[in-house]
């Protein structure tokens, strides 16, 4: 999402493309609105699981897909005539460095759900992979992108379950992370963006797009400004939002909530990628029952027990996965 969303400046010689700056700025504001909803859920102002289901889930995935699509467009626009190595490495270093910072901060803040492969990691990795597609025909790049989206829907394997392979996106056990954006399927919109940009360059659509003005009013100007400085916006918006929500919680605390429905909802949301609703319902009910019966539920919810610190957690996940698969209707 950042100069993230740009591994490259969205411009043609001598001119920025205002429409792309505006689109990126709008995507950032949409992201901030979703994160604000997520924040107030974490503080107890919304029922747990609200932002991981239904329209909220669609909204979040649309935002992530939009950022990656724009990142692919920007990479192609910047390097369509040849890889400009120094600018590419500079931007890649900024994105990868910001991704590492996010991982470090969240590891200490939320160790059981820290971000080890989020949107920034995905954009950095996709940018490197995208270099191999710069010279390929647009249709090949788009088809490869579609393939990345379809692959995790039809294929997953236990060999991708180790934590160090979760970034691929083909594991059968849903990982725990506050922002999980693996290459499969999210490399897909990035490559589709590259293909769309290549086609736009060939048809001179980008030149016409560069002539489109997005308005001189203050709101449009601020939105474009955010789009041009998206990395800074991404890094700063959550601390600002969390400070606002925390301050509000001190002045007007939320009502206490039962953690059980939220745990089940979050479990089902994390399970939904590549699994049926029936399987996820059985799996999450099994996990909940096992955690409660073994006296681990409260400790798990409090972060005192994690899959890394207690071998019983992954054992429960494996047991419930097998039981849920066996219970599947013929």
TrEMBL record:
Q: Which InterPro entries match?
A: HGSNAT_cat
Which Pfam families does the protein's record reference?
HGSNAT_cat (PF07786)
* Domain Heparan-alpha-glucosaminide N-acetyltransferase catalytic per the UniProt entry, residue ranges: 16-239
**Keywords assigned:** Membrane, Transmembrane, Transmembrane helix
Transmembrane residue ranges: 19-38, 58-77, 89-108, 114-134, 141-160, 180-201
Protein name according to UniProt = DUF1624 domain-containing protein
Q: Which organism is it from?
A: Hoeflea ulvae
């Amino acid at each position: 999402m950042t100069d993230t969303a740009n591994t490259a400046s969205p411009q043609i010689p001598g001119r920025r493309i205002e429409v792309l700056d505006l689109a990126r700025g709008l995507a950032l504001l949409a992201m901030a609105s979703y994160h604000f909803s997520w924040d107030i859920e974490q503080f107890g102002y919304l029922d747990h699981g609200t932002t991981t289901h239904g329209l909220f889930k669609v909204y979040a995935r649309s935002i992530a897909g939009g950022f990656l699509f724009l990142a692919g467009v920007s990479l192609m626009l910047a390097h369509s005539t040849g890889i400009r190595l120094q600018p590419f490495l500079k931007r890649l270093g900024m994105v990868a460095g910001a991704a590492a910072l996010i991982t470090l901060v969240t590891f200490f803040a939320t160790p059981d759900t820290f971000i080890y492969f989020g949107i920034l990691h995905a954009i950095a990795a996709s940018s490197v992979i995208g270099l191999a597609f710069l010279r390929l025909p647009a249709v090949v790049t788009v088809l490869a992108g579609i393939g990345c989206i379809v692959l995790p829907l039809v294929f997953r394997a236990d060999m991708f379950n180790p934590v160090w392979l979760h970034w691929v996106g083909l594991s059968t056990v849903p990982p725990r992370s506050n922002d999980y954006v693996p290459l499969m399927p999210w490399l897909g919109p990035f490559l589709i963006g590259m293909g769309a940009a290549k086609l736009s360059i060939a048809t001179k659509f980008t030149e016409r797009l560069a002539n489109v003005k997005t308005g001189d009013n203050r709101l449009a100007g601020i939105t474009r400004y955010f789009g041009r400085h998206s990395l800074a916006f991404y890094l700063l918006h959550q601390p600002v939002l969390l400070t606002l929500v925390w301050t509000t919680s001190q002045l007007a605390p939320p009502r206490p909530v039962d953690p059980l429905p939220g745990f089940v909802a979050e479990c089902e949301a994390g399970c939904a990628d590549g699994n049926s609703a029936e399987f996820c319902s059985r799996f999450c009910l099994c996990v909940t029952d096992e955690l409660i019966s073994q006296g681990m539920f409260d400790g798990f919810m409090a972060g005192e027990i994690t899959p890394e610190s207690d071998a019983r957690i992954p054992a429960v996940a494996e047991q419930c996965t097998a039981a849920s698969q066996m219970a599947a209707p013929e």
